[in-house]
Amino acid sequence: MARSEVRDGRRAPWQGRRRCSRVASSNLPFWARPKAGRPAPPRGARKGGATRSGFLRTPFLPLRPAEPEEAVASVGGVFVAFEDPQQVRARRAAGWLRFFPDAESRVFAAGPLGVTWVSYDPPELFAPAHDPLTGVRVWTAGRLSWSEQEWTRAEGLAQFRGGLSTRLLLSCYLEEGPAAFAHCNGPACAFLFDPREHSLYLWTDRFGYQPAYLYAPDSPRRCVIATHPDVIARDPHCATTRDEVSLAEFLSAWRVTPPHTYYREVRYAGAASLHHWNLKDEIHTRRLHWSPDFAAAADPADPDLLAARLRSALESAIRVRTLPRLGPVGLLVSGGMDSRALLFARSPGVSAIACNLFVRSGKEASVARELCRRAGVPFRGVRIDEDWYPRWALLGAKLSGGLSLLEDNHYLGLRDLFRSLGVRTLLSACSVDWLFKGYGLDRERRRLLGRPLPVFRLSEHRSPGFPPNAPRPLPPAFAAEAQERLEAWYADCPTRLVRDEDWRRCEDRRVRPTCYAVSISGPLMYRAYPYDTFCGDRALADCYELIPARWKSNSRVWGKAVRSLCRGAEDVVDSNWGAPLAASNAEKVARFLAGWPLRKIHALRRRTRPDILRLETSGSWPNLGWYVAHSARLRERWEGAESAHRKLLSAVWGEDPWATPLAQWSRRGSEFFRLFTLLSHWQSKDGVFDPPRPPASLQAASFPSDDASTRA
Hints:
By secondary structure, the protein is an alpha+beta fold. It is built from 25 helices and 22 strands. Helix 6 packs across helix 14 (476-489) and helix 23 (643-653) packs across helix 25 (669-685).
């Protein structure tokens, strides 16, 4: 084809462009203007080359090739520096994140941007995409989901380079412009650079599963975007200061008030947001592309109809994430209600294996194994040892940036196992409690003779902080500013709750952004695994805004939906409650009361024998106090803490935590693990370290049989 032709109605990059050094610098975007105090090279100068990405070909902007192929072993994520055309800062950021040797990585230039992309997702499906004709580039952190028909169409987009998923978004953008982001579906951040418009777009998912943090977003000369806040803080071009109020908030409420981080200059980009940077005019704008309509459930339909809609959305969300081309698939399952949906809604024909972590091979593991047997999925039970959580503390703190509790590090020790099994997609049901079971609602347990029952009723008053965790009083030095942040976050929420809209508006402030929520493993899974979650699906977000609070509070609609989905396993009980799915409140109470004598005996034994402290509390959840009392690794790290760390932790805690013996902390395990999380984060930042290796027994060569279990 002749160079002057136009393909598909689009100009080739050389059309209408003139290599001329006489262009007034005021008409150029900031990144193409001569630096202050440095004159532009004379006309015709070629040193360093001109731009390679198809936009303004000025001879005074040397760039490296636009398609470097550098393998950098890193934590999964994205780093974007706005004034880094030679990718110096991007390469440095990749070096800071070096961790696991199996990461796929790209370091490239997108106009004035230096970009680092690191992922554990299959590169042929999810690597950054590039259109050589227009210079438009697309890359994502996390996965976008597509139907099999759309994947097949992507295979025909041979005019683009890169992964199939990003090719699809690139194709949509060239046809529709920014409206193409409406096609994005999944827990991801999508980035798009268009050199023709001198524009960068950042799209975040509806719930905010995949984090993106901003530094100086309104100053394109200084702006940095990253999916990990510590990476921004380590960039020498970014001036950051420690936010001790956020540290105190974490110790008080188990989480930080969005959009704050541990650095005052670094903020979260916001859930369901579309950011646009006009690099020529140096303008940054942000708008919401979705927000829940709380009035939609004011006059709801029958719960059975909502359950049917939720069931359909749930099945579709799981199937598009377990297509055969995405397998083998690893499913993280328990004996509870939520994860069994993965077993029964997976796409037909996909190669799958289910994994369950347990302390004792009791009811939890037995129910999980039985569910796998009925679903026809190979089962692997992994028995965790007495040092499981302390062993992965430094690794988890480094991956999460200290923003996730160490008890959320359940699966970090399984990397080698899943790698040996060739798993290309890992799924869990984390965050269902938040979205559909009322975990963030203002509610309280019903009581019988003063004893709490396993059923809830809605509370008339908004709880302080972030339920279900009750906040610990903050030190006076930080209390006022922390309260101001909470008031700003709940500004549109009433304190007295009367209408369904009131409860759900408050709930939404705890659910979104989900990357700030507790007890869901958090963003560290995206930084360590080829991880996805069906909860980030658009159709499930639509269901989230429709279900009224009273039908979330006791899992009524969710239980009905899962029960109808798990055909052939309706009689398998929920191991958390010992009741069948969608059981009525009366049935839950009856089963709870039937088990009361046995629980009373165990309680009496613990009072008369204080030395009896079991490793687990219930199901697969750990007794954190057991680790405090018994883990030599934890004791060594705690007692060997540096004086600077001791001083800072004492300041944000309000007193010296080392003045309390570990024997006493063992009775306050949850509080201690908050302290240990921050300490581990600071210790992990002190230097590069090798992550601990899991036992050889976890490194399997093939799928195990249904009854296989492993001692970790």
